[in-house]
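Pasting as-is:
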Amino acid sequence: ILTALLFALLALPATAQQTSYDTQTGQMSKFDAFTGNWAGRGTVQQKIDDEPEQWTGRMSARKILGDRVIERDMTVQMGSNSMPWVGRTLYAFDATHEGYLSHTVDNAGNVEIGDCYWTPDNALISSATLEMNGKVITDLERIQMRGGKLHYTVQRSINGGEFFTHFEGKFERGGQAVQATSASMKKQQYRKPSAHMKKLQPLVGTWNIEGEMTDPASGQTSTVSGVETVEYGFGGHVLVTELTGTSSTMDSGEYR
């Protein structure tokens, strides 16, 4: 399976761009309580019949791309494993479809794309299904701030079976910042990238972009130009694209 991880934030006509920006940043303010550095501990269970093991971990969450996206990096040391689990999750609000999305990549080579929802009591619920080691895994994640702590649980189902508590614990503010860089994930990876990722090799490099873009809502066409950098990231499990440029419909600044 060839999986691509991509967040595209496109330039829109001035009025639409401002409306989209205001909507995105307003909705993302719900994540303010999650930002900062955290230290946590709890239990983890890999299978429904396994005995729970202890884990300790650190987590850092920050706003990026003009406060439109939350970037959450986490590292967890589980039981007797010598290598920690390292992962990065991006949360964003899709103003067009009016919903939250999450994208996660980790050093085990897993890429999860999930939908997110806020409950009336301010708990963040996200769900994702992926194939892992030949098994279909469905994770239901719940994060909630209570009493100054982040309460974090993951319910898991394997091959459509009964859900069980895969991951449970609490995070308190403090500790060192976590940066799940591509270098750290490559150094501490459980599994090598899929051979399918080699098909994307021709895209790697730096590209000058010139052309036109049409806003589907208004039908307005603008000329765009920019520079796109494409490289393998996180141990080669994903392809990371960064595009910066300008548009004829932008009053000032650049899009990224």
